[in-house]
Structure formats: C-alpha cells, structure tokens
Specification:
The protein is of the alpha+beta class. The chain has helices spanning 2-19, 35-47, 69-78, 87-98, 129-137, 146-150, 175-178, 182-197, 203-219, 229-239, 248-251, 314-319, 399-409; strands at residues 20-25, 52-56, 62-66, 83-86, 105-109, 115-118, 142-144, 159-162, 223-227, 302-305, 326-328, 337-338, 347-352, 357-365, 368-373. The chain has 2 domains: 2-109, Alpha-Beta Plaits; 115-412, 3-Layer(aba) Sandwich (Rossmann fold). The protein is built from 13 helices and 15 strands. The strands form 2 sheets. Strands 6, 7, 8, 9, 10, 11, 12, 13, 14 and 15 form a 10-stranded mixed β-sheet that branches. This is Asparagine synthetase B.
Length: 420
C-alpha cells in the first residue's frame, strides 16, 4: 500500500513538471530567497534570445519565462526561488493582471541590454554599489572611461552607469581632508595626465567634454543611471559650460568671481536654481544635496517608493518594483536631493517627505532616459573612504539594491507608448 501511495505521489509530481510550460520567479518578500540573483537569471534568459514577461506589481514584480531544464538548473545553482506553472495557470495569472481593476501589467523584456560602467582604472579608495551588484547578480558589463567616451564608444551600449565621479574637475571636493594622502595625490596626477593626453589644459575642461558626450548619448536614446556625487556634479558641469568654477588648488588659476550668476540651469537634466558651494574646504558641491541639512535619526531613516499606475505609467512602475514600499536610507557624498532644486518635469519616485528630500528621481531627455539615485551604498549606512566593501551575499534580498537592478533591466523592455 505504501509503495502504491509513493508511486502515485511521484507520478503526480512528475506529471506537473512534464506539463509545466512556464517558470515563475516570484519577487515577493515571503517567497524569494535571493532577489538580487533573480535579476541575473532574468538577464541570463534574455541573453539566450528568449523573451521574459515582467509582471509589474504582481508579487513584488515577478518574472515569467518559458520553462527549460537549463533554466531550472540555473535557478538551483544560483539559489533563486522559482515555481513551475502550467499553461492554464500562467494564462490565469496574466488574465488577472490584465483586469482593469488590478494595478498590474505584463511588460515584455526582449533583449539583454549591453551595459557600460564609467569608471577609472585602478583601485580607488571606495567601492561602487552598481559594479558590486552587477557582479553579485552575475550580469556582465564592460568598463569605459574618458578616452572611450570621447571616441563615441558609448554608442555601442544600451545602458550607462556613472561611477562615483566628480564631473566638475574639483576632485570630489576631498581637498580639506585628503589632499595630503597618497591616493588623492595620485588621483589628481593621473587625472591631469589624462586630460593633457586627450588635448585639454584642465581636468575641468576635459570632464565637461565627457559630460557633453554623455548628454548627447542620452538625448540620442541612451539610458543613463547615476548615484551619489555623479548625479549633481554631472548637472553642475553642464550648467557651468564655459564658466570657471574651480579654485586655484584644483586647476591652477582663480575661478570666475561672478560664476554663480553665469550658471545656466536650462542645460541641466534634473536640477535648477541651486547655489554652488564656493569654498574648497567644504565637502559639498551645491545646495542640491541634503546631507548637511538632514535631521533624521538613523533608526528611522527610510524613504518611501511612489505608487504609479502600472497600465498607464509603466516606466516609473518598472523602476519602483520591490517587495516593500519602504526602503532604508543611506548616506553618500550626495545623499539626497532638495525637492526645491528639482525641475518640475522630473519625476520623484522615492522620497522622505518629512525631510523635504527626494532619494530616487527619473526623467526624459530627448529620446533617452536618466535616473538619479542618492547615496553611496544601500546596505552601508555611512560608507567612509577606505571602509571594506559590502558583502552582498549577506543582503540577497536588499530593497535598496533592487532599485539599481530595476534600472539595469529597464532598457530590455519592449517600447510601449505612455498614456500620460
């Protein structure tokens, strides 16, 4: 009798597997044990020229894809939770999602985007959250820097991440604390040598040329993602085109005494009406950043993700997919953005309303898109120069890191005309 029962159960299980047509990778809090590697599995499937359906607002933004033995094995190897679905079950889920009463949508992901990370060679004394999570999720990327950008190699890529960077030529405003440290001296020397090699007299002039190339990449249809100081320093560089905002210790000559009045906010992507920080002894670029204006105890430092209509506003909905609407805050050179400095046509997707700050913003520039994410490392509250990097194996379900990976998959989505 026991043998018959065991055979019946085994037959039932094998029957389910044999009739499974789809794999669902759930992204809710209760079921998925490794959210970050789940994005890597999705990218892996796309790289094999197979399409994936991103189920927006369904169980935390789950992924639905054709069932294969190779896919099941890959999920098991990477420790990603998955469920096997029959055709009928998959159709039932899609019907539920399509219902006008549900704030859900199914977006088709068509191809694996080619990813570029803008970063210098060598080992800088900090770590970059994006490169760490791409590596952990096993999503391939290539690194580029100023020479490649100026030679128009950005055109080879679908998605660009701006590493921890200062596009203003002020070396990250690290002058006060680190000007005598070997790494700062070496970085300054290397930056000046590179600028001269590329035909520029000043680092600020060379970085402006790079910023303009990146701007053109986005205007032409590229996807750009930036974190921490790359966000505001990029916009500041664009706004200060043709104006010397660097003090003598940065570029060898005096800044323009009236440079604030010459800032052109029409040239920026996201920010307006900001005031530049003139002192080289202050570790800050402008009034955009809220770091020194924050009055939030660490224990209650969270920001809220906005809730968008999946069917009417699929882009911000994609970028906000998560298993929680409340994300832990974290610091950076540029921690967050003063709401009063954000342009009216830029979408705030994550905010700490009580402190009047935006943490996660998105906009359109020409034919392309950009996303700015404040802070340095979503799982290291106050990362300092020289601190060890975060071990993401200890944070496989990180909501803060999920926002980065949403942006990585965003260019894979089949273009769908927005209704707003």
């Amino acid at each position: 009798m026991k043998k018959i029962l065991l055979f019946t159960v085994l037959f039932f299980v094998l029957s389910i597997e044999s009739y499974a047509s789809y794999v669902l990778i759930p992204m809710d809090a209760d079921t998925q044990k490794n959210h970050l590697k789940a994005y890597g599995i999705t990218y892996w499937v796309l790289a094999k020229q197979q399409k994936v359906k991103w189920l927006l607002n369904y169980r935390g933004g789950s992924f639905l894809m054709p069932d294969t033995d190779a896919l099941r094995k890959e999920c098991q190897i990477r420790g990603v939770s998955f469920e096997l679905l029959s055709n009928a079950k998959a159709e039932s889920i899609l019907s539920e999602i399509e219902s006008p009463s549900q704030n859900m949508d199914a977006v088709i992901l068509e191809k694996a985007p080619k990813i570029a990370v803008y970063t210098p060679s060598g080992n800088a004394p900090w770590d970059d959250a994006v490169t760490m999570v791409l590596t952990y999720a096993e999503i391939p990327y290539e690194t580029i820097y100023d020479k490649e950008v100026l030679e128009d190699e950005l055109l080879l890529y679908d998605w660009l991440h701006l590493h921890h960077e200062d596009f203003t030529g002020q070396y990250g405003k690290f002058y006060k604390r680190y000007r005598a440290t070997p790494w700062y001296i070496e970085e300054k020397k290397n930056a000046e040598a590179l600028a001269n090699e590329l035909g520029y007299q000043k680092v600020s002039e060379e970085k402006l040329a790079v910023s303009l190339k990146i701007r053109n990449y986005v205007v032409g249809g590229g996807f750009m993602f930036a974190m921490c100081s790359a966000t505001d320093s990029f916009d500041i560089a664009l706004s200060a085109e043709g104006v010397d905002i660097c003090e003598p210790m940065f570029d060898g000559d005096a800044s323009d005494p009236a440079y604030q009045s010459k800032i052109d906010y029409s040239k920026t992507f996201a920010f307006t009406d900001f005031v530049l920080e003139r002192s080289p002894m202050v570790y800050e670029f402008s009034s955009i950043d809220m770091t020194t204006k924050r009055r939030i105890p660490r224990e209650i430092d969270y920001f809220t993700l906005m809730n968008f209509s999946a069917k009417w506003d699929p882009v911000p909905t994609m970028l906000c997919q998560n298993h929680t609407a409340l994300v832990k805050g974290f610091m950076g050179q540029t921690t967050s953005f003063d709401r009063q400095t954000i342009k009216s046509n830029v979408l705030v997707m994550g905010e700490n309303k009580a402190n009047g700050e935006a943490r996660y913003i998105h906009g359109i520039k020409g034919k392309g898109f950009f996303t700015f994410y404040g802070g340095h490392d979503p799982e290291d509250y106050q990362h300092k120069v020289g601190d060890p990097k975060t071990e993401l194996s200890l944070h496989p379900t990180s909501p803060g890191y999920r926002l980065i990976l949403n942006n990585v998959l965003f260019p894979a989505a089949k273009k769908k005309k927005q209704k707003t």
